[in-house]
Amino acid sequence: MNLDLTILPGDGIGPEVTGQAVRVLQTVADAFGHSFQLQRKNIGGAALAASEDPLPPDSLQACISSSAVLLGAVGNPAFDHYPNHLRPEAGLLRLRRELGAYANLRPAICFPALVECSPLRPELIRGVDIMFVRELLGGLYFGEPRSIEGEPGWRVAINTMRYHEPAIERIACVAFALAEKRRRKVLSVDKANVLECSRLWREVVTRTAKDYPSVKLSHMYVDSASMALVQRPRDFDVVLTENMFGDILSDQAGGVVGSLGLLASASIGGPVGLYEPVHGSAPDIAGQGIANPLGAILSAAMLLRHSFQLEREAACIENSVGAVLAQGYRTADLASAGQKKLTTSEMGSIVVEAVKKSAEAVSTAKERSA
Ligand code: NAD
User: Fold this and answer.
1) C-alpha to C-alpha distances, 11 to 45, 46, 110, nearest whole angstrom
2) Is the same domain home to 169 and 68?
3) pLDDT tier for residue 367 given thresholds of 50, 70 and 90
4) Can you say whether the dihedral through the CA atoms of 122, 123, 129, 135 is positive or negative?
5) Could you report the per-residue pLDDT of 102-125, keeping only the tens digit for each?
6) Mutation test residue for ligand 1: of 13, 20, 260, the one with most atoms within 8 Å of CB
7) Which of 202, 232, 257 is the last residue of a domain?
8) N or C end of the chain: smaller count of CB under 10 Å?
């Protein structure tokens, strides 16, 4: 298979972590006999510095014409005073919309070796395996009108939460289809006691559930869900929710399983999938070579699974990450007192070696069975 990708390293630690993810992808491609073509383009602050546009036309065109996009992170405090449409984050929001990527999948998994990294007690966190399905193109982040108006001292800020029935139905279908391959449970999170958007959300999700009779649907208000996520995270399986609630809850889950640096995501639904770690550009540690690249590497695994249906290759990366963690390798964000702290590229190299070993084992097993 030809893996033709656009890489958008972005800002801060983005180039550091995507560099390691690309090494891992190249190793998997070599080991499993795929060809690998990539082009690197600017987005976010890096693009603003070069062209005064957070998503320049040639970056967008490259993304649209490739089979999948791997992004690092966007965000640079130097542009925080820029108007909304010229901030680095505007480039990412526009890219998601242009790619039609309405379904954001965010797994939050507690790796057995990292039970001690969670702020929760081991008996609460062991075995946690949650899949957040977040609606990505609606709600407050995109709704119009939006503005800050009026005289200083009397200004009014406006954002609009808006949801159309078809947008709710299509994201619900993604959640139910995923649940069919997991524990057959969907929890839909809303704020139906207060918000009209949530009332419509609940009605449409309930109606859509009838097409998936093997899946059990339940509902929870977002405030209760946020509390339950720390009290009994193991009860959660597929969590279906709108854009902003999903943004917040999935980061909270990152804290629950140990480190934001581990979390991967896939934004799918349109013709080209977009894959990125959940974390941001982490300006506080950028340039130091200490960022955890595993979220980006696990995003590359999601890319192989969802854009190329290469399940075996995706599992090879995920198993290699699990093995590396089980052997005690840690970046600074995961290391406890006395543990050696690997740099970003050292962690990348160790995963590359583990992927080679795992791929060899797969091909030996295949030869034996042939
Ligand atoms: P952040 O995720 O960048 O960082 C939060 C904390 O987690 C920081 O202490 C950081 O050092 C740490 N961290 C994050 N990723 C890590 C990794 N891979 N390894 C080790 N530690 C890691 O969030 P923030 O500080 O709120 O935002 C910084 C910038 O990133 C802002 O400009 C924000 O808008 C942007 N942002 C972008 C995205 C995205 O590109 N999808 C997501 C969130 C935030």
Assistant:
1) 6, 6, 28
2) no
3) confident
4) negative
5) 999 999 999 999 998 899 999 999
6) 260
7) 257
8) C
